[in-house]
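## retry 2 of 3
previous attempt timed out at serialization; input unchanged, resubmitting
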Amino acid sequence: MALKHLLAALILLQAVAVPAQQAASKPAPPPPPLLSHELHSDRSVTFRFKDAAANDVKLRLDSFAKPIPMTRAAGGIWSYTTQPLPPEHYFYSFLDGDEQRADPENHLFAPNMAFSGSNILIVPGDTPEPWDETAVPHGTLHVHRFTTKIAIGLPANQEEVVVYTPPGYDAAAAKPYPVLYLLHGWSGEAESWSRDQQANFILDNLLTEGKVKPMVVVMPLGYGDMSFVENGFNVWRDRAAVELNTQLYMSMLMGEIMPLVETAYNISRDREGRAITGLSMGGLESLDTGLHYPEKFAWVGGFSSAVHNLDYEHQLAALDPKTANLKLLWIACGTEDGLIEANRKIIAFLNAKGMPVTQVETPGLHDSLVWRDNLIHFAPLLFQK
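## retry succeeded, writing output
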């Protein structure tokens, strides 16, 4: 009996020991993901970035003119808490020394062509904002690609064009839709206006409120020469490179993009049904195109336009306000934008020629907060009698 009890005890000990051994060899669970962007109830935000080897980390955030120093804590976690922020979509990234780094914990990522992309932080309002996706009828985004014979350096010579058609778009309607050509900025892509500025949701909401005419919006890739974006920001110091990119793009817009969309969509082919505007580089392109070809566009705008290297005194010397006969020339810029003086100078030049200009200056920097607001106020002015 003693031997029998001893064997039973050994079996029981073995049964207990095996699970204990397995538990001891089981790997420890991974640490929880870093809460990299924590939105508080008062709309302040705490940003966190982990790099134990870093000696200096800063936060780049829309509406802040300079990178913001972050504070290091235990475990190499750097943090910064903002004051309460107005409801908006903010772009942010981290500067790890001199290297721009995206937030690896945030899946809302906005790539661009010139440098490491930024992440998106959404600070909601108490009620829907004009750029929010809301329960209203939505337009449709279409993507087109074609082989350009004008622009140089595009991968496989493929130009991309994103087209917004409004809710209820009727390809067989007796009256063609008016069309807005909406151009992105330097380092942007054809999707930038819809992805980064929520242009399609802005138009959906304005249409539902009865503030804009139903219109088709054409958003092309904005480079006449791809080396203009591939060679880095210092290319803006080279007036010849700026001029080459702008002139090639203007030629592609007029000679390839417009014929493509006018064939594919039921849109206006006369000047009173065409508008053009853009932001930054796109603002330079839209003003240059619209003022050179007023017989093609009756509605012209520019948001934070990069006109500092535009030789308008010579190129637009023959501009005649009566011949141009624009329905609207709308030039806007943020008062803290480095391009504000360049925009004031071109407006002064146009005023001296007797060209009526709607000059708009709003608080803000060279960022999406200004450009969304510009579109919200510009679009309702278009195609009105």
